[in-house]
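**Entry details**
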Amino acid sequence: MLTRLLLAVLMTIVTVSSFCSEARDSLVVDSKSAKEPAEVNFSLLIAGDLMQHMPQIKTARRRDGSYNYEECFAGIKAEVESADVAIVNFETTLAGPPYSGYPHFSAPDDFLRGVINAGFDIMLTANNHCVDTRRKGFERTLKMMDSLKVEHLGTYRNIEEREENYPYLLEKDGLRIVLLNFTYDTNGIPVPEPCHVNLMDTVEIAADLEKARAMNPDIIIALPHWGIEYQTLPSKEQREMAAWLLEHGVDYIIGGHPHVAQPLELRNDGRNLIAWSMGNLVSNQSDPNTYGGYMVRLDFTKCDSLTSLSDCSYTLYWVSRPPDNGYRHNYRILPIDYPDSLLTATEQRLRGTIRKNMRQLMKEHNVGNTKEKKM
């Protein structure tokens, strides 16, 4: 009897031990098969002012009457296309022929096609030249962008269109970025009714930010057209506006309009960035520092509802103009370290000046861990 009882106890112990071992093995398997929090990576590239003066338009014209801009953007195309989304300030109108440069810009439709073919996905249209060609050019510019299926923000045919489409939301796999675009002025030209231009009005922007926050964004980026032309350091008004934007919930501020590069400031361990001015992307301007600039690249990572800036960099470029003794080539946007062997002596001299000036500016005035990326 005692022997049978001891045997039963031993069998129970073995059974319980076996069950616990299987349970532990099961927990280990479950632990290994559990999904890690999904990680989303997203890269955003932002470039400066796209301008078309008459010498640029004449140079781009072909014998058949069309306009070709492929050569203009070939030097930066790979860099632009490497980002998930690329944004640029479209600082001209598309009013149709006859075309015009400064002071009332109107470029060929092929210019927009060239910009799109270069890899740019979103056009910023709130700038001081957006009503240069009044209502006709204003509305036709948006019509052309819509017909070519390129996204845009900053100007609208009417207030209803603005209410439906602004603030602009970028989204990828749950990562949500809201974009705001506005300008300090329209060169004194009244905005034709019923059209709407986003102006740098804190009352309107505050309402836009309230609407933006309701969109549950991970990041809010403001893209202002601001500052004083040809000044390489931000103005008092820029600094005051930037402080206001940051206080009201904007995370990153990427600016344009001065036509020259201004420095970058990465603050609060990467939670805030101000790129005061990226300069011209392309133009016919030849004043000091106007024929070069930089593109900003922001790499974001979202993991388990936490979004961070994993990398912040900028790429320097300059614009090579056709020589005075004939149009050997189009205006070309080239990497700042483009090989000397592929440049004329004049090009080497001009590139050397703008490269020295911009790198010196960045060295002396950049704030935080921003880094130059080579193309």
Summary: The CA atoms of residues 264 and 275 lie 4 Å apart.
